[in-house]
Amino acid sequence: MVYADLVIHSAQMMATLRGFSEGPACGTDMSEIGIIEDGAVAIQDGKITAVGTTEEVRADGWIGPDTKLINASGKVVTPGFVDPHTHVLYAGSRENELSLKLKGVPYLEILKQGGGILSTVQSTKQASDEEIKAQTSRRLRTMLSMGTTTAEAKSGYGLMLDEELRALRLIHELDQEQAVDLVPTFMGAHAVPPGYNEERFTNYIVDEMLPQIAAEGLAEFCDVFCEPGVFSLESSERILLKAKDLNLKLKMHADELASAGGAELAAKLGVISADHLLQASDEGIAALARKGVIAVLLPATSFNLAKNSYARAREMVQAGVPLALATDSNPGSSPTESMPLVLTIACLYLRLTPEEALTAATINAAHAIDRADQVGSLEVGKQGDVLILDIPNLNYLPYHFGNNPVEMVIKRGKVAWSI
Ligand SMILES: N=CN[C@@H](CCC(=O)O)C(=O)O
Ligand SMILES: [Zn+2]
Q: Which residue numbers delimit the Aminodeoxyfutalosine deaminase/Imidazolonepropionase-like composite domain (predicted)?
């Protein structure tokens, strides 16, 4: 008999998120989080081998003489959070922009003046590989401590080919060197660098960068900041069609600051996810639903931009758009690593229920980065990525905000972080 290496048992409430590995949950299914009371999960060789009540897992014979037992009585157990939209790799910080923001200078105006994304491009370029990795590792450690076990990581603070390749290489190295699994996205189309206009830079991305990025095999997704004043619908479409030709999977920053047909383009191109979407039109939302495009909502960004403007999440759920949640972790519009904070803002301002928010932060987030076959739910065969939350019930998760509810993080069956 093969025994489990680890069994977590007696959970007050275990949310398995089972049943949605083939396709993301949408509509009323986003509330179906597969609760087991007195729950247990067994893990062997990094993979889940059994999920059920403590009694069932015990009766199935998974507990042997060397099995490590963790008692989760009184606690909530969930899959590790998946953060499907981050710009976590960079050097430097932008706290100087706070006073500009408080004076009302718009985000894109700061960028136009050479600040914003372009200032992080400068600070990242000036930093050594070791400095970038050290600063990013600290953020990844914070993410892990707050329950994130898998995260997407975009390039985009390089902009020129060599710097973008360096960013993607560093993401790969960090993926190997620390516990959070990273999914790499090429986002050369993050801003237009000085010395270029949009058209020339789009030509450079399409003709020179993308073929080389694809040839090196360092990126799985391609993303574009599709926004009037940054990359137009036409430029975004050219870049994403080229990326698709080169077998990259597609994502889009769409309709964040202005309603400009980003959601409609995302649906037309059949991207895996369209992200931000604060200003998505009714037609855009309907088109996302028709095409099954996942809306990755970033409410911590809305909170931090401080304009009292949030994505129309309830209308999206109603229309049948599958929702995911992410931090957007970056030095400008969302300097946070905290998925628990995102869940709180999502409940209070996107008006999601705690169940919908949990679905959006786990299994639907896994779909948004094409990892739902491996993570995002507690089901047999998936990676043993499990959180023990020191809370008595699920409502408590968004309710008690500004602190860390995570007591222990299990990554591939091993304790990766604990209080
Ligand atoms: N909107 C574009 N990109 C990031 C912000 C990056 C930055 O400000 O450094 C975002 O998703 O919010
Ligand atoms: Zn972003």
A: 39-59
| 167 and 116 both lie in a single domain | yes
Residues 303, 398 share a domain: no
Residue 419 CA to its chain's centroid (Å)? 24
Residues, the chain:
419
User: Any known ligand binding at 253?
Assistant: yes
The residue range of the domain holding 65 is 6-80+377-418
Q: Which residues of 64-85 are buried (b: 16+ CB within 10 A; e: fewer)?
A: eeeeeebebeebbbbbbbbbbb
Residue 105 is encoded by which pair of tokens? Answer: 């200078």
> What spacing in Å lies between the alpha carbon of 339 and ligand 1's midpoint?
17
**Same domain, yes or no: 246 and 291:** yes
188 strand-pairing partners: none
pLDDT per residue of the chain (419 residues) written in tens, 0 to 9: 799 999 999 999 999 999 999 999 999 999 999 999 999 999 999 999 999 999 999 999 999 999 999 999 999 999 999 999 999 999 999 999 999 999 999 999 999 888 999 999 999 999 999 999 999 999 999 999 999 999 999 999 999 999 999 999 999 999 999 999 999 999 999 999 999 999 999 999 999 999 999 999 999 999 999 999 999 999 999 999 999 999 999 999 999 999 999 999 999 999 999 999 999 999 999 999 999 999 999 999 999 999 899 999 999 999 999 999 999 999 999 999 999 999 999 999 999 999 999 999 999 999 999 999 999 999 999 999 999 999 999 999 999 999 999 999 999 999 999 99
Task: Please indicate whether residue 253, judged by its CB atom, sits closer than 6 Å to ligand 1.
Answer: yes
Residue 390 sits in the same domain as residue 362: no
In short, whether 62's Cβ falls inside 6 Å of ligand 1 is: no
Same-domain status, 59 and 156: no
256 is in an annotated binding site: yes
Could you give the CA distance from residue 27 to residue 7 in angstroms, rounded to a whole number?
33
To test the pocket of ligand 1, the residue of 97, 136, 187, 190 to mutate (highest count of ligand atoms within 8 Å of its CB) is 190
Residues 295 and 324 in one domain: yes
Helix or strand run (H / E) with residue 152: strand 148-154
Answer yes or no: is 367 a known binding residue.
no
Determine the Cα–Cα distance for residues 18 and 25; give it in Å rounded to an integer. 10
User: Does the beta carbon of 86 sit less than 6 angstroms from any atom of ligand 1?
Assistant: no
In a 3-state reduction of DSSP, which class is residue 31?
helix
| Nearest CA owner, ligand 1 atom 1 | 225
> Of the bound ligands, which one is closest to the alpha carbon of residue 108?
1
The CA 229 to ligand 1 mean position distance, Å, reads 14
Q: What is the pTM of this model?
A: 0.98
Q: Is the Cβ atom of 331 under 6 angstroms away from ligand 1? A: yes
Ligand 2 centroid to Cα of residue 86, in Å, is 6
Q: Indicate whether 131 and 250 sit together in one domain.
A: yes
Q: What is the CATH number of the domain that holds 98?
A: 3.20.20.140
- The closest-lying atom of ligand 1 relative to the alpha carbon of residue 331 is 9
Domain identity same for 75 and 112:
no
